TrEMBL record:
The chain crosses the membrane at residues 1-15. It comes from the Bacteria. It comes from Shewanella loihica (strain ATCC BAA-1088 / PV-4). Residues 54-287 form the ABC transporter domain. It is found in: Cell membrane. This is ABC transporter-related protein. Signal peptide: none annotated. Coiled coil: none annotated.
Length: 291
Protein backbone atom coordinates (compact mmCIF):
# COMPACT_ATOMS: atom_id res chain seq x y z
CA UNK A 1 0.00 0.00 0.00
CA UNK A 2 2.82 2.32 1.01
CA UNK A 3 4.49 1.54 -2.34
CA UNK A 4 1.39 2.76 -4.16
CA UNK A 5 0.83 5.73 -1.90
CA UNK A 6 4.32 7.20 -2.21
CA UNK A 7 4.28 7.64 -6.01
CA UNK A 8 0.74 9.07 -5.83
CA UNK A 9 1.83 11.44 -3.16
CA UNK A 10 4.81 12.39 -5.30
CA UNK A 11 2.54 12.88 -8.32
CA UNK A 12 0.37 15.18 -6.23
CA UNK A 13 3.46 17.17 -5.34
CA UNK A 14 4.53 17.35 -9.00
CA UNK A 15 1.01 18.42 -10.00
CA UNK A 16 0.99 21.23 -7.43
CA UNK A 17 4.44 22.37 -8.53
CA UNK A 18 3.44 22.38 -12.21
CA UNK A 19 0.21 24.21 -11.46
CA UNK A 20 2.15 26.84 -9.52
CA UNK A 21 4.70 27.14 -12.30
CA UNK A 22 1.94 27.51 -14.92
CA UNK A 23 0.36 30.32 -12.93
CA UNK A 24 3.74 32.05 -12.99
CA UNK A 25 4.20 31.40 -16.71
CA UNK A 26 0.78 32.93 -17.38
CA UNK A 27 1.89 36.01 -15.49
CA UNK A 28 5.15 36.02 -17.43
CA UNK A 29 3.20 36.00 -20.69
CA UNK A 30 1.17 38.97 -19.60
CA UNK A 31 4.52 40.69 -18.98
CA UNK A 32 5.95 39.49 -22.27
CA UNK A 33 2.92 40.86 -24.12
CA UNK A 34 4.14 44.22 -23.03
CA UNK A 35 7.74 43.61 -24.07
CA UNK A 36 9.01 45.59 -27.05
CA UNK A 37 8.27 43.95 -30.38
CA UNK A 38 11.28 45.53 -32.02
CA UNK A 39 14.10 43.14 -33.00
CA UNK A 40 17.81 43.76 -32.51
CA UNK A 41 19.47 45.04 -35.69
CA UNK A 42 22.48 43.10 -37.06
CA UNK A 43 24.81 45.84 -35.81
CA UNK A 44 23.21 46.24 -32.37
CA UNK A 45 25.78 46.63 -29.62
CA UNK A 46 25.97 46.09 -25.86
CA UNK A 47 28.26 48.81 -24.53
CA UNK A 48 28.85 49.27 -20.81
CA UNK A 49 26.24 51.76 -19.57
CA UNK A 50 27.37 53.04 -16.21
CA UNK A 51 25.86 56.51 -15.73
CA UNK A 52 22.38 56.23 -17.22
CA UNK A 53 22.36 59.83 -18.46
CA UNK A 54 19.37 60.28 -20.76
CA UNK A 55 18.71 62.60 -23.68
CA UNK A 56 15.57 63.04 -25.79
CA UNK A 57 16.23 65.25 -28.81
CA UNK A 58 13.38 66.47 -31.02
CA UNK A 59 11.28 63.34 -30.41
CA UNK A 60 7.92 63.21 -32.17
CA UNK A 61 5.54 60.28 -32.18
CA UNK A 62 2.09 59.49 -33.53
CA UNK A 63 -0.20 56.51 -33.05
CA UNK A 64 -1.45 55.93 -36.59
CA UNK A 65 -2.23 59.42 -37.80
CA UNK A 66 -2.84 60.79 -34.32
CA UNK A 67 0.02 62.99 -33.06
CA UNK A 68 0.89 62.14 -29.45
CA UNK A 69 4.31 63.72 -28.83
CA UNK A 70 5.68 66.69 -30.65
CA UNK A 71 9.33 67.80 -30.64
CA UNK A 72 10.08 66.62 -27.11
CA UNK A 73 13.63 67.46 -25.94
CA UNK A 74 15.08 67.12 -22.47
CA UNK A 75 18.18 65.87 -20.77
CA UNK A 76 18.86 64.09 -17.48
CA UNK A 77 22.53 64.41 -16.54
CA UNK A 78 23.98 61.45 -14.63
CA UNK A 79 22.74 61.37 -11.04
CA UNK A 80 19.93 63.88 -11.59
CA UNK A 81 16.18 63.47 -11.13
CA UNK A 82 13.74 64.73 -13.75
CA UNK A 83 9.98 64.49 -13.30
CA UNK A 84 7.24 64.69 -15.90
CA UNK A 85 3.82 65.97 -14.94
CA UNK A 86 0.73 66.86 -16.94
CA UNK A 87 -2.93 66.07 -17.41
CA UNK A 88 -4.14 62.56 -18.11
CA UNK A 89 -3.51 61.74 -21.79
CA UNK A 90 -0.75 64.37 -22.16
CA UNK A 91 1.71 61.68 -23.33
CA UNK A 92 3.73 60.94 -20.16
CA UNK A 93 3.59 57.13 -20.39
CA UNK A 94 4.30 57.31 -24.12
CA UNK A 95 7.70 58.84 -23.27
CA UNK A 96 8.50 55.74 -21.18
CA UNK A 97 7.21 53.42 -23.93
CA UNK A 98 9.52 55.08 -26.46
CA UNK A 99 12.45 54.85 -24.05
CA UNK A 100 11.92 51.07 -23.83
CA UNK A 101 11.35 50.91 -27.59
CA UNK A 102 7.85 49.48 -27.29
CA UNK A 103 7.39 51.76 -30.28
CA UNK A 104 9.89 53.50 -32.56
CA UNK A 105 10.06 57.28 -32.68
CA UNK A 106 9.12 58.78 -36.03
CA UNK A 107 11.46 61.72 -35.48
CA UNK A 108 14.29 62.51 -33.12
CA UNK A 109 16.71 60.45 -31.09
CA UNK A 110 16.87 58.98 -27.61
CA UNK A 111 20.33 58.34 -26.16
CA UNK A 112 21.59 56.78 -22.95
CA UNK A 113 25.17 57.68 -22.00
CA UNK A 114 25.47 58.97 -25.57
CA UNK A 115 24.36 55.69 -27.19
CA UNK A 116 21.35 55.85 -29.50
CA UNK A 117 18.83 53.38 -28.03
CA UNK A 118 18.09 52.14 -31.56
CA UNK A 119 21.70 50.92 -31.83
CA UNK A 120 21.60 48.97 -28.54
CA UNK A 121 20.57 45.36 -28.11
CA UNK A 122 17.29 44.94 -26.25
CA UNK A 123 19.26 43.19 -23.54
CA UNK A 124 21.68 46.12 -23.11
CA UNK A 125 18.77 48.58 -23.06
CA UNK A 126 16.81 46.64 -20.46
CA UNK A 127 19.88 46.07 -18.29
CA UNK A 128 20.53 49.82 -18.24
CA UNK A 129 17.04 50.70 -16.95
CA UNK A 130 15.11 49.57 -13.88
CA UNK A 131 11.44 50.45 -13.96
CA UNK A 132 8.92 50.70 -11.16
CA UNK A 133 5.72 50.26 -13.19
CA UNK A 134 2.29 51.64 -12.31
CA UNK A 135 0.97 48.14 -11.91
CA UNK A 136 3.31 45.68 -10.20
CA UNK A 137 2.92 42.00 -11.04
CA UNK A 138 3.28 39.75 -7.99
CA UNK A 139 4.05 36.09 -8.54
CA UNK A 140 2.48 33.35 -6.46
CA UNK A 141 5.58 32.96 -4.31
CA UNK A 142 7.18 34.29 -1.13
CA UNK A 143 7.77 38.00 -0.69
CA UNK A 144 11.50 37.31 -0.79
CA UNK A 145 11.35 35.50 -4.16
CA UNK A 146 9.09 38.22 -5.52
CA UNK A 147 11.80 40.76 -4.76
CA UNK A 148 14.67 38.51 -5.91
CA UNK A 149 12.96 38.58 -9.31
CA UNK A 150 14.67 41.99 -9.75
CA UNK A 151 18.06 40.23 -9.83
CA UNK A 152 17.79 36.46 -10.22
CA UNK A 153 20.62 34.83 -8.28
CA UNK A 154 20.88 37.64 -5.70
CA UNK A 155 21.79 36.42 -2.21
CA UNK A 156 19.29 36.53 0.69
CA UNK A 157 21.42 39.30 2.23
CA UNK A 158 21.11 41.42 -0.92
CA UNK A 159 17.33 40.91 -0.97
CA UNK A 160 17.05 41.82 2.72
CA UNK A 161 19.10 44.97 2.14
CA UNK A 162 16.73 45.97 -0.69
CA UNK A 163 13.72 45.33 1.59
CA UNK A 164 15.29 47.64 4.17
CA UNK A 165 16.04 50.40 1.66
CA UNK A 166 12.55 50.17 0.17
CA UNK A 167 11.09 50.85 3.64
CA UNK A 168 9.38 47.48 3.74
CA UNK A 169 11.02 46.18 6.93
CA UNK A 170 8.19 47.23 9.23
CA UNK A 171 5.66 45.67 6.92
CA UNK A 172 7.67 42.42 6.77
CA UNK A 173 8.00 42.26 10.56
CA UNK A 174 4.19 42.32 10.87
CA UNK A 175 3.76 39.27 8.62
CA UNK A 176 3.30 35.89 10.33
CA UNK A 177 6.05 34.28 8.24
CA UNK A 178 8.10 37.41 7.56
CA UNK A 179 9.67 37.52 4.13
CA UNK A 180 8.76 33.85 3.58
CA UNK A 181 5.08 34.85 3.53
CA UNK A 182 3.39 33.95 0.27
CA UNK A 183 2.05 36.90 -1.66
CA UNK A 184 0.29 37.20 -4.98
CA UNK A 185 -2.79 35.48 -6.33
CA UNK A 186 -3.09 32.70 -3.73
CA UNK A 187 -1.20 34.47 -0.97
CA UNK A 188 -1.47 37.70 0.87
CA UNK A 189 -2.93 40.54 -1.15
CA UNK A 190 -0.79 43.64 -0.90
CA UNK A 191 -2.13 47.21 -0.96
CA UNK A 192 -1.26 49.49 -3.89
CA UNK A 193 1.38 51.29 -1.82
CA UNK A 194 2.98 48.04 -0.59
CA UNK A 195 3.11 46.70 -4.15
CA UNK A 196 4.90 49.83 -5.36
CA UNK A 197 7.46 49.40 -2.58
CA UNK A 198 8.00 45.77 -3.65
CA UNK A 199 8.67 47.12 -7.15
CA UNK A 200 11.06 49.72 -5.69
CA UNK A 201 12.91 46.93 -3.80
CA UNK A 202 13.19 44.98 -7.08
CA UNK A 203 14.58 48.05 -8.84
CA UNK A 204 17.08 48.73 -6.03
CA UNK A 205 18.23 45.10 -6.27
CA UNK A 206 18.56 45.26 -10.05
CA UNK A 207 20.96 48.18 -9.60
CA UNK A 208 20.62 49.66 -13.10
CA UNK A 209 22.06 53.17 -13.55
CA UNK A 210 18.80 54.66 -14.94
CA UNK A 211 15.63 54.35 -12.86
CA UNK A 212 12.14 55.02 -14.11
CA UNK A 213 9.35 55.44 -11.61
CA UNK A 214 5.89 55.36 -13.14
CA UNK A 215 3.75 56.42 -10.24
CA UNK A 216 0.49 54.55 -9.66
CA UNK A 217 -2.61 56.72 -9.91
CA UNK A 218 -4.37 54.97 -7.02
CA UNK A 219 -4.90 57.22 -4.04
CA UNK A 220 -2.76 56.50 -1.00
CA UNK A 221 -3.15 57.38 2.65
CA UNK A 222 -0.54 59.86 3.86
CA UNK A 223 1.43 57.17 5.74
CA UNK A 224 1.72 55.03 2.62
CA UNK A 225 2.60 58.05 0.51
CA UNK A 226 5.41 59.02 2.91
CA UNK A 227 6.78 55.45 2.91
CA UNK A 228 6.92 55.53 -0.90
CA UNK A 229 8.59 58.94 -0.92
CA UNK A 230 11.26 57.66 1.50
CA UNK A 231 11.80 54.49 -0.55
CA UNK A 232 12.06 56.59 -3.72
CA UNK A 233 14.72 58.77 -2.14
CA UNK A 234 16.78 55.67 -1.31
CA UNK A 235 16.26 54.33 -4.81
CA UNK A 236 17.38 57.57 -6.45
CA UNK A 237 20.63 57.84 -4.46
CA UNK A 238 23.58 57.61 -6.84
CA UNK A 239 21.26 56.95 -9.79
CA UNK A 240 19.80 58.91 -12.69
CA UNK A 241 16.02 59.00 -12.39
CA UNK A 242 12.98 59.77 -14.46
CA UNK A 243 9.71 60.07 -12.56
CA UNK A 244 6.29 60.07 -14.20
CA UNK A 245 4.23 61.72 -11.52
CA UNK A 246 0.56 62.01 -10.72
CA UNK A 247 0.99 63.36 -7.21
CA UNK A 248 3.08 66.51 -7.15
CA UNK A 249 4.48 65.57 -3.72
CA UNK A 250 6.69 63.12 -5.66
CA UNK A 251 8.30 65.88 -7.73
CA UNK A 252 9.05 68.78 -5.40
CA UNK A 253 12.67 67.67 -4.94
CA UNK A 254 13.32 67.00 -8.66
CA UNK A 255 16.22 68.85 -10.29
CA UNK A 256 13.91 69.62 -13.18
CA UNK A 257 10.17 69.20 -13.75
CA UNK A 258 8.80 68.99 -17.28
CA UNK A 259 5.17 70.04 -17.72
CA UNK A 260 3.61 68.19 -20.62
CA UNK A 261 0.42 69.34 -22.33
CA UNK A 262 -1.02 67.68 -25.43
CA UNK A 263 2.32 66.06 -26.26
CA UNK A 264 4.45 69.21 -25.89
CA UNK A 265 6.69 70.38 -23.07
CA UNK A 266 5.11 73.70 -22.19
CA UNK A 267 7.05 74.57 -19.03
CA UNK A 268 10.24 73.37 -17.35
CA UNK A 269 12.08 74.25 -14.17
CA UNK A 270 12.29 73.28 -10.53
CA UNK A 271 9.31 73.38 -8.19
CA UNK A 272 9.91 76.91 -6.88
CA UNK A 273 10.59 78.48 -10.28
CA UNK A 274 7.51 76.81 -11.78
CA UNK A 275 5.30 78.08 -8.95
CA UNK A 276 6.73 81.55 -9.50
CA UNK A 277 6.04 81.31 -13.25
CA UNK A 278 2.33 81.07 -12.36
CA UNK A 279 1.47 78.84 -15.33
CA UNK A 280 0.07 75.32 -15.82
CA UNK A 281 2.24 73.78 -13.06
CA UNK A 282 0.92 76.33 -10.58
CA UNK A 283 -2.65 75.44 -11.65
CA UNK A 284 -1.98 71.68 -11.17
CA UNK A 285 -0.39 72.39 -7.78
CA UNK A 286 -3.30 74.54 -6.64
CA UNK A 287 -5.88 71.92 -7.68
CA UNK A 288 -4.01 69.14 -5.82
CA UNK A 289 -3.60 71.18 -2.66
CA UNK A 290 -7.17 72.34 -2.33
CA UNK A 291 -8.12 69.72 0.25
P1 LIG B 1 -2.15 59.18 -17.76
O1 LIG B 1 -1.72 60.26 -16.83
O2 LIG B 1 -3.66 59.04 -17.79
O3 LIG B 1 -1.46 57.86 -17.53
P2 LIG B 1 -0.46 59.94 -20.01
O4 LIG B 1 -0.07 61.36 -19.94
O5 LIG B 1 0.54 58.94 -19.53
O6 LIG B 1 -1.83 59.70 -19.27
P3 LIG B 1 -0.36 58.44 -22.47
O7 LIG B 1 -0.72 57.12 -21.86
O8 LIG B 1 1.04 58.66 -22.89
O9 LIG B 1 -0.82 59.65 -21.53
O10 LIG B 1 -1.32 58.65 -23.72
C1 LIG B 1 -1.24 59.76 -24.60
C2 LIG B 1 -2.33 59.66 -25.64
O11 LIG B 1 -2.06 58.54 -26.48
C3 LIG B 1 -3.71 59.46 -25.05
O12 LIG B 1 -4.60 60.30 -25.72
C4 LIG B 1 -4.02 58.01 -25.33
O13 LIG B 1 -5.39 57.83 -25.58
C5 LIG B 1 -3.21 57.73 -26.58
N1 LIG B 1 -2.78 56.31 -26.67
C6 LIG B 1 -2.13 55.62 -25.72
N2 LIG B 1 -1.84 54.37 -26.15
C7 LIG B 1 -2.34 54.27 -27.41
C8 LIG B 1 -2.38 53.25 -28.41
N3 LIG B 1 -1.82 52.04 -28.17
N4 LIG B 1 -2.99 53.52 -29.58
C9 LIG B 1 -3.54 54.74 -29.83
N5 LIG B 1 -3.55 55.75 -28.94
C10 LIG B 1 -2.96 55.53 -27.74
Amino acid sequence: MMQLFMPLNFLGFVYREIRGALANIERMFSLLDRQPKIEDGPDATSPQIAQGSLKFEGVSFRYGDRPILSDVSFEIPAGHKVAIVGDSGAGKSTIVKLLFRFYETQQGTITIDGHDTKALTQHALRSAIAIVPQDTVLFNDSLMENIRYGLPGASDEQVKAAIELAHLSNFVSQLSEGWHTKVGERGLKLSGGEKQRVAIARAILKGSPLLVFDEATSSLDSHSEQAILNALKEMAKGHTSLVIAHRLSTVVDADQILVLSQGKIVERGDHQSLLAADGLYKKLWTVQNQH
